[in-house]
Write a structure and sequence with these properties.
By secondary structure, the chain is mostly helical. It has one domain. It has helices spanning about 1-20, 30-60, 60-70, 80-110, 130-140, 145-170, 175-190, 195-215, 220-240. Helix 1 (about 1-20) runs parallel beside helix 7 (about 175-190) and helix 4 (about 80-110) runs parallel beside helix 9.
Length: about 250
């Protein structure tokens, strides 16, 4: 477990440092919405490589076959099972997406925060407020090439680390499968703390859905496509379907 937590901490610190660096000067803050997910993707890929390298060295063929199973679905997987899991996880992911939006709305009604306010614990870091961040996410979403390039890198890193490497290590350490799903989901969710506790809870639900999909039919065929689908839902919030009409911006973020 210590290896998993150490890698998770390293990823979190890397993302935090990228955000802090972009916050040094006001003019740089608009780059956070690209710098943070790019750093997250790269750091996650490095973390996954470190964990899987240890698995190969310590556990040999057994660990390697387990990693392949979490990636490709294992020898027992077949197209019909994969398709069924993909549909089920897609519906569950949509429910998690909706749940995050509802949680955010409920929190906003309860706290009645100042428009665009950050969580109080983050105000001292000179980070952009929620309204500013959402505006920059909207600008990035309006540029499909940039948005999908960043999303592909982030998804590749997150799925490699949180849906393959971490679960494999935890299972090899003797933890039950549900722990191998929930713990990485929680560590994945923590990286979204900049958007507030409600976003963390929403991402925890989403992470559990993705973890179940990776366990049942492989990250490559289920959790990664569902994660990219989720990113398309995020983008749709910011991009109007009809030219000339303003996009309707909601609360759920990537």
């Amino acid at each position: 477990m210590s290896q998993v937590l150490a890698v998770a901490l390293g990823v979190f610190v890397a993302v935090a440092l990228s955000v802090a660096a972009c916050s040094i000067r006001p003019a740089w803050r608009r780059h956070i919405v690209v710098a943070a997910p790019v750093t997250l993707g790269l750091a996650s890929l490095v973390g996954a490589w470190l964990l899987l390298s240890d698995v190969a060295l310590i556990s040999g063929a057994g660990g390697t076959s387990l990693a392949v199973a979490w990636t490709l679905g294992g020898a027992a997987a077949n197209p019909w099972v994969t398709a069924g899991v993909l549909v089920a996880c897609g519906l569950a992911a949509r429910a998690a997406f909706r749940a995050e939006s509802l949680i955010l709305r409920w929190v906003n009604r309860m706290k009645k925060p100042r428009s665009g306010a950050l969580p109080a614990e983050l105000l001292a870091l000179n980070l952009p407020e929620r309204a500013e961040t959402m505006s920059e996410v909207g600008r990035t979403a309006a540029r499909p090439g940039r948005y999908w390039s960043v999303s592909l890198l982030a998804v590749a890193g997150e799925e490699s680390l949180f849906r393959v490497a971490m679960p494999v290590v935890l299972v090899l350490l003797g933890f039950p499968v549900w722990v191998a799903i929930v713990v990485p989901a929680a560590l994945y969710a923590v990286n979204h703390i900049g958007f507030g506790l409600a976003s963390v809870l929403g991402k925890l639900l989403f992470g559990v859905v993705l973890g179940c999909g990776a366990w049942a039919a492989g990250a490559l065929f289920v959790s990664a496509p569902i994660h990219l689908l989720y990113q398309s839902w995020v983008r749709r919030q910011f991009v109007s379907r009809k030219p000339g009409r303003p996009a309707r911006i909601k609360e759920t973020v990537e």
